Amino acid sequence: MIDAHIHFWKYNKIKDDWITDEMKLLQKDFLPQDFKPVLEENNVNGVIAVQADQSENENEFLMELSKNNSFIKGIVGWVDFQNENIENKLLYYSKFPVIKGFRHIVQAEPHGFFRNEFFLNGIKLLKKFNFTYDILIYENQLKEAIEFVNQFPEQKFIIDHCAKPAIKNKSINEWKKGINEISQNTNVYCKLSGLTTEAEWNTWEEKDFYPYFDCVFESFGINRLVFGSDWPVVNISGGFSNWKTLLKNYMLDFTKEEREKVFEKNAIEFYNLKAL
User: Fold this and answer.
1) What is the pTM of this model?
2) Of the candidates 52, 4, 15, 45, which has an alpha carbon nearest to the alpha carbon of residue 31?
3) pLDDT value at position 230?
4) CA distance 156 to 12
């Protein structure tokens, strides 16, 4: 089993101001030693550590952690795609096999960010270095994301957290249209992650997620869906094991091979973890 989406951080009240008091249990350090019990209990063979801070210091921090924790199989880091020296930055990071790709927190950016020509110029260079790109957006940004990915038919993209549908409001129609459309791009994958935090944290039921699962499974198919826990953020809405069980229950009638693809093989394919 591969967990394609977890975070590590040393908590800093200023740097991590996105962790509000509503999420108080996340206001502390979360490091590899804190994840190891979860890893052992759930038979996780490896993880992708995804940036939580938009700085190059984050890349160094995650790379340092990977040196002493062999279960960190890949890193999704951060670079300033608008920087005029972006090509040199990507060249530098290409020397570290553990860095598989990059992400920008577009969900926090204003309308129109995906049309920024400097950002687009940076994205153009990713394929040259065989890097992936994680798309982090809310569902109301799907329309712009579709325009964005249409410009890069050969770049490997993955949508984090299924583009954060408003499960709490049982809103689905506009999100579903966007997911159906963006999935037509065969270079775009989707992460089955982060959905319990989009529902009522303490009162969600399994059935709340099934219409959303139905949509992404139908749209992306079994070969482009990837399991991720979003640990430790998932702890505010039920925890790792509950999320894994929820998805496994949904997939009970799937074949063993199909379950292996979602829980392991598709992550290996997308993030180029073939050394496993």
Assistant:
1) 0.96
2) 52
3) 98
4) 32
Q: Give me the residue spans of the domains in the chain.
A: 2-270
How long a stretch of residues is the chain?
276
For the chain, the average pLDDT equals 96
What is 117-165 written as a DSSP string? Answer: HHHHHHHHTTGGGT-EEEE---GGGHHHHHHHHHT-TTS-EEEGGGG--
Name the superfamily (CATH) of residues 2-270: Metal-dependent hydrolases (3.20.20.140)
Task: Tell me the pLDDT band of 14, cut-offs 50, 70 and 90.
Answer: confident
Residue found by looking up tokens 């490896």 in the block? 46
Other residues' Cβ atoms within 10 Å of the Cβ of residue 56: 16
> Quick one: average pLDDT of 148-176?
96
Is residue 206's pLDDT more than 90? yes
Q: Is 180 left (phi over 0), alpha (psi -120 to 50) or beta?
A: alpha
Say if CB 262 and CB 222 are below 8 A apart.
yes
Q: What are residue 101's DSSP bridge partners? A: 76, 132
